[in-house]
Amino acid sequence: MLRVDGRPSKSLSCTRVETGVAIRDIRTFAEYEGCVDLQREVWRFPEVDIIPAAHLVVIHLYGGTCLGAFDGERLVGFSFGFVGWEGGKTSHHSHMLAVVPSYRDRGVGEALKWVQRERVLAQGMDLVNWTFDPLQAPNANFNVNRLGAVARRYFVNIYGESTSPLHGGLPTDRLEAEWWIRSSRVQAAREKRRTPLAGSENLPRANRGTEMGPFLRCEDDLALDLDAEAVRIEIPARITPMMAEDRARALDWRLKTRALFQAYFERGYGVVDFLRVEGRCYYVLSRALEGLC
User: Fold this and answer.
1) Cα(35)–Cα(41) distance, rounded to whole angstroms?
2) What is the pLDDT of residues 76-109, one digit of tens each?
3) How far is CA 274 from CA 138, 193, 201, 208, in A?
4) What residue ranges define each of the domains in the chain, with the CATH number in brackets?
């Protein structure tokens, strides 16, 4: 029986161990406080932007998820989400996923997501959603390729002016990841057998980056109305150092890719793949979304 600081709660399913780290539900108030500490460590948020332990407890107790990744007794990552509702449909919003830097690239974040999927499936839902920065190539690869999420909606400055130094003072534009957890696409990603859209590297390009100094520049001639079954949108391979050292160029990427995503989403395209070709990074947007959701 799961206990939250000595109080009885729901009984949840078994612990999973991957990459030497145990993934299980957060159980004690001290562990919830550990999730608060991870928010400070990973995102360097000020106190006003941190979700407190008491809120994590209540949301977890009444339908949300709060999972921890443990190396022995040490909490090295966590994920947190809550039940959402939109347009008559219930879903699960995965609000936070954090892994301490020394445990990244070890599959911990992915393991947290797959256990979260088990929890949500057990609740009878088929959709998990979350937001992510469309200019962060590692996140795009993780969400679209490794998890099998798709994206069809773009939010402009959804969180307002961010106080986190990790966001570089840019507008907090976000893509919405749709993770249809019962779909064959997601199951293929779970089994490591999902393959990119054939011929993606030859698709027409809606924008073009050129090398100029230490950072890639986005050219001005955007193709907002290509008439093809699928198109590519390029983003920088490394936006974080650009935000720190050349904010004007990073902002230019934000505004130009914003215009592109909005134009193609309005015409019925959706993100279905993410490509890395010779050091360059591209989203693949397709009109063919049937069967992916």
Assistant:
1) 10
2) 999 999 999 999 999 999 999 999 999 998 999 9
3) 10, 15, 10, 16
4) 1-125 (3.40.630.30), 130-191+202-293 (no CATH)
